């Protein structure tokens, strides 16, 4: 807080306290010439009389004690501008103290699962339950409460893993995060084959996923194959199977994280994508990250370790 704002707060607080004291004193005193409580002359129906009685002295004194308490509060706690207070209390210290207590409690809960492989944890119902809770608090914002993902966020319930689906690879994704970059190729492809270059590449990519092979003789697909081999093959491979070391997706399956419409594919090729999976090592710690990874693993694997139906 700047010095100017500090003095503003000090003046405002002082004015309010002094104003409350003055108001109590001014309204509680009786002045010469004031009518007696029963002499207000406000009478209705012959026997209903309005009185002008002041508050009881004990009630007034309670207000004064409240003001004294407020002054003591401002002396002990910060609230008077930049004055830190005699007690040196801060919300940061309070937060750190509460967080330390909560962390100690959590460590006792998670201690039995420390260092266990996530495929082993995935077969432990209690570990999966804890992992589900961690997932809901930390990961569901992007991947959804069911892990089905959304446009731009991968589905965690299938068997498609752009960065690898082994237990160690899934754990590494949770702990250290991932960053997948699809460069924008629109201008480069346009310079190579004109305005239709992106559509040619899309035709070839469609042909890669065509098990019948009928689409590969198409002129657009054949033209796109040349362009694909010039700019795309380094990441996605000649056969379009991708590269998990780079996070480059398999283009021959039916899963498209950013959508499989022509417009979505054109946007991805022309302008690229930049996907970031944040690292959670510092946020969760290794044991909680393992439990979250175990829950994710369980979404696509049965309790026996095979693929989930």
UniProtKB/TrEMBL annotation:
Transmembrane annotation, as ranges: 6-26, 58-76
Positions bound to heme c 1: 139, 142-143, 277
Family matches, as Pfam families: Cytochrome_CBB3, FixP_N
UniProt-annotated binding residues for heme c 2: 182, 232, 235-236
Keyword presence, Ligase: no
Cellular compartment(s): Cell inner membrane
Pathway the protein contributes to: Energy metabolism; oxidative phosphorylation
Molecular-function annotations in GO: electron transfer activity; heme binding; metal ion binding; oxidoreductase activity
UniProt xrefs under InterPro entries: CcoP_N, CcoP_N_sf, Cyt_c-like_dom, Cyt_c-like_dom_sf, Cyt_c_oxidase_cbb3_su3, Cytochrome_c_Oxidase_Subunit
Cofactor: heme c
PROSITE patterns cross-referenced by the UniProt entry: CYTC (PS51007)
Superkingdom of the source species: Bacteria
Keyword Ribonucleoprotein: no
Family to which the UniProt record says this protein belongs: Belongs to the CcoP / FixP family.
Subunit structure: Component of the cbb3-type cytochrome c oxidase.
Its job: C-type cytochrome. Part of the cbb3-type cytochrome c oxidase complex.
Full protein name: Cbb3-type cytochrome c oxidase subunit
Source species of the chain: Thermomonas carbonis
This protein's encoding gene: ccoP
